[in-house]
Automatic annotation (TrEMBL):
Annotated RRM domain residues: 101-178
SMART domains assigned: RRM (SM00360)
Lineage: Eukaryota, Metamonada, Diplomonadida, Hexamitidae, Hexamitinae
Alphabetized PANTHER family for the sequence: RNA BINDING PROTEIN (PTHR24012)
Alphabetical list of Gene3D superfamilies matching this protein: 3.30.70.330
The entry's keywords: Repeat, RNA-binding
Protein name: Polyadenylate-binding_protein
UniProt xrefs under InterPro entries: Nucleotide-bd_a/b_plait_sf, RBD_domain_sf, RRM_dom
Entry-linked Pfam families: RRM_1
Organism: Hexamita inflata
Length: 282
């Protein structure tokens, strides 16, 4: 049996009315005898926060239902409402935190939407969940997160999309693993020291202990350090938590040298970003 979650159900719409709408849409082979409309724990401004889970006999029927629902506006009280359908996963929050099929896409155009993201990355495999985080503070690009059904789909997306362009925006696509994200703080602000120099610094410090391919730049640009306003930060990710721990140890033993002057830096797990992502994905 396969399940589908349908969200953005109108506030005043009853379960019987939802059933009638799905009959009009000709949703195939729904096994539910009755619907139970639920309220999400966290509700965004763009959604009512009401959803229903539909059960289907097989995956083909579930996928057909998702296509029909997403392509057909729901008419309720003579008003059109765009409802959303996606595969339902009981342990979605856990998967978003740990799955090797979960990727992050940085440097997306500011106008990118979740529907755009699904359309682009849906070519690489079946998407379980996707979300776009719009630009905020000093960040001028959007960030996307996509959870694929299979690890090989995520790997394929990275191979095809990493460092490709959407208009003037070059994409940076990597696996996400909240236990291996590292933030490097207290980086001196210098015109001659940018993201490339940071990458070279990290690679030089890990030496022969860790393959350079096990570390990826996590953000395409440096950002202002919120604690020390005259310093910068950069976030990167490692393949595993064990690698991240070793990288943190090696970096904290070696300052950055700029113009012959040593500058102590601080590497640690990026707990702030972990909490933000967990909150966003709940």
């Amino acid at each position: 049996m396969s399940s589908v979650i349908v969200s953005n159900i109108p506030e005043n719409c009853s379960a019987n009315e939802v059933q009638e709408v799905f009959k009009i849409m000709k949703i195939p082979n729904i096994s539910n005898e009755s619907f139970d409309i639920q309220n999400s724990k966290k509700c965004r401004n763009t959604s009512t926060g009401r959803f229903v889970v539909l059960n289907f006999k097989d995956k083909t029927d579930a996928n057909d239902a998702i296509k029909i629902i997403n392509q057909t506006p729901m008419v309720f009280e003579k008003k059109q409402t765009v409802i959303r359908a996606a595969p339902y996963v009981n342990n979605l929050t856990s998967l978003l935190k740990t799955s090797l099929a979960n990727i992050a896409i940085f440097n997306l155009p500011p106008e990118m939407t979740t529907d755009n993201l699904k359309q682009i990355f849906g070519e690489f495999g079946t998407i379980i969940s996707a979300v776009v985080q719009k630009p905020h503070q000093n960040v001028k690009y959007s960030t996307g997160y996509v959870l694929f059904e299979k690890v090989e789909h995520a790997d394929y997306a990275i191979r095809c999309a990493h460092k490709q362009f959407i208009g003037a925006y070059q994409l940076y696509v990597h696996k996400t693993n909240n236990h291996s994200q590292v933030i490097l703080s207290r980086v001196p602000e210098c015109k001659n020291f940018a993201i490339t120099e940071i990458e070279n610094y990290i690679i030089n410090k890990i030496g022969d202990d860790i393959p350079a391919t096990d570390i990826f730049t996590f953000l395409p640009t440096l950002r202002q350090d919120p604690v020390q306003s005259k310093k910068l930060q950069v976030i990167f990710t490692c393949k595993t938590r064990q690698i991240a721990l070793k990288v943190i140890e090696l970096i904290n033993e070696c300052p950055i040298t700029i113009d012959g002057k040593p500058h102590p830096v601080l590497a640690q797990f990026d707990f702030q970003m972990i909490e933000a992502k967990q909150s966003m994905n709940q």
